[in-house]
Write a structure and sequence with these properties.
With 186 residues, this protein is an all-alpha fold. The chain has 8 helices and no strands. Helix 1 runs antiparallel to helix 2, helix 2 crosses helix 3 and helix 6 packs across helix 7. The C terminus is likely disordered.
Length: 186
């Protein structure tokens, strides 16, 4: 790698490593140490091909996803433990208590999903990728992405039923449907 390419790579790592680490933390189920390993391996692979990469962030993200897929396809899966929180960085954002509670509940529920379920949800909802792109990145069919998304969301709701209640105020009742017009009248 020439001097200019090294400088470009260092600049990329300095500018984008925070966002990439957040994605890696989500993919690894909240385990910051595993996320750092995942990101470091992805950056090492990207550094070797740096002069041929057109879109570095997309390339590194794809490496992250594929490495995570490889982890859950291992013959002897590793036990996952949640040991860390996603990095919050130096941003100072004031949150309402409900938003902070929602994040805590969501992280806990995501950490209890399987690696495959978590990967699909992160790609679909955190990265906001369409089903076809998720299927391409994970090396599966669009139908598999749809069914895994459905099962993952159902499991997420079962693991954390309080997620639905957090979006409502204390005095608000959940919306009810009025079926009185459909009732049979004598």
């Amino acid at each position: 790698m020439d001097v200019q390419a090294q400088e470009n790579f260092r600049e990329f790592v300095a500018n984008r490593s925070y966002a990439l680490l957040r994605t890696a933390v989500l993919l690894s189920g909240g385990d910051r140490h595993a996320a750092e390993d995942l990101l470091q391996n992805a950056l090492i692979k990207a550094a070797g091909r740096w002069h041929r990469i057109d879109e570095p962030e997309a390339y590194v993200r794809q490496i992250l996803y594929r490495q995570q897929v490889s982890r859950w396809r291992l013959k002897w899966p590793r036990r996952e433990t949640s040991v860390g929180e996603p990095p919050e960085g130096t941003r100072h954002v004031t949150d309402s208590a409900a938003a902070a509670e929602l994040r805590v509940v969501m992280r806990g529920a995501l950490a209890r999903l399987t690696a495959r379920q978590r990967s699909v949800l992160v790609l679909r909802y955190y990265e906001d990728l369409p089903e076809a792109d998720v299927a391409r990145l994970l090396g599966c069919s669009v139908g598999t992405v749809r069914s895994t998304t459905h099962r993952s969301l159902a499991r997420l709701r079962a693991l954390a039923p309080e997620l639905a209640a957090l979006g409502q105020g204390a005095d608000e009742q959940p919306p009810t449907r009025d079926f009185s017009a459909l009732e049979a009248r004598p």
